[in-house]
């Protein structure tokens, strides 16, 4: 469970990015943060893995204030998928996926098995793709690798920041399906940022609609009323 309690973020230039944001995300749930550019979605997301510190308020994971966690352990336990395809260009696909498991000193055999299982999960034949370089894959395939790389060390929480916005509509739709399916299989808690309402409604168990740093509405997709 992730809990934001009365979170405020004011940047040093005075921008009030997030204002009194309180939200509880249950274990195994996908929550989408949706709203226009600049409404505070990314700021809220990055506070979960402490890439940004709140100005006031606290965030709890399983009832423990995240400030009390060791920061490396916190980040190992939180997968992070970014908008820009951010694979390491000089590492093979398998090496890209193995980065965090290796930092955690997993046994070589276990790491290899994990890579194979993850590639299988997103429809990339392991024997074909493990040893390829990122530039030898299409954009959609690279983004798939980006998604499973975030899952590699089996984190409880996955943060996704507009992960599909650089993709064509078909790849996008396939990846949305992948995410839904993965989430059912592995029961991860996912926080997903998007400015695309269709995507927010398609992916979220719960949708958090934001405006100017505040929550406008928080509900299941079918309950969400979008004002024109
Ligand atoms: P702070 O004000 O919290 O010290 P900085 O001004 O040093 O943060 O900016 C940190 C990062 O955020 C930089 O990469 C910067 O380009 C980016 N940034 C700065 N201002 C904005 C803004 N208004 N919107 C989005 N990103 C910004
Ligand atoms: P969103 O993800 O919804 O587009 P952000 O969380 O990136 O919104 O930004 C919220 C507000 O904070 C915006 O007004 C943005 O310009 C501002 N902002 C983001 N990062 C910084 C920064 N480092 N310094 C100053 N202002 C920032």
UniProtKB/TrEMBL annotation:
Organism: Virgibacillus xinjiangensis
Protein name as annotated: ABC transporter ATP-binding protein
Domain ABC transporter residues, every copy: 2-228
One example GO MF annotation: ATP binding
Keyword tags: ATP-binding, Nucleotide-binding, Transport
Entry's family note: Belongs to the ABC transporter superfamily.
Range of the intact protein held here: 1 to 228 of 356
């Amino acid at each position: 469970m992730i809990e934001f309690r009365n979170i405020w973020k004011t940047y040093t230039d005075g921008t009030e990015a997030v204002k009194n944001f309180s939200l509880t995300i249950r274990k195994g749930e996908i929550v989408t943060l949706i709203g226009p550019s600049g409404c505070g979605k990314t700021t809220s997301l990055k506070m979960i893995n402490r890439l940004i510190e709140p100005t006031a308020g606290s965030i709890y994971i399983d009832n423990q204030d995240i400030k009390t966690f060791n920061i490396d352990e916190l980040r190992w336990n939180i997968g992070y998928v970014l908008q820009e395809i951010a694979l390491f260009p000089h590492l093979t696909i398998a090496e890209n996926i193995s980065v965090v498991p290796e930092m955690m000193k997993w046994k070589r055999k276990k790491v290899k098995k994990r890579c194979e299982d993850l590639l299988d999960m997103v429809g990339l034949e392991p024997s074909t793709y493990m040893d390829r370089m990122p530039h030898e894959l299409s954009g959609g395939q690279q983004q798939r690798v980006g998604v499973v790389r975030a899952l590699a060390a089996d984190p409880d929480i996955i943060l996704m920041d507009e992960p599909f916005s650089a993709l064509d509509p078909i790849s996008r739709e396939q990846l949305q399906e992948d995410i839904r399916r993965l989430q059912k299989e592995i029961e991860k808690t996912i926080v997903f940022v998007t400015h695309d309402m269709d995507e927010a409604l398609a992916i979220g168990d719960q949708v958090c609609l934001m405006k100017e740093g505040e929550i406008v509405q928080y509900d299941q997709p079918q309950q969400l009323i979008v004002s024109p």
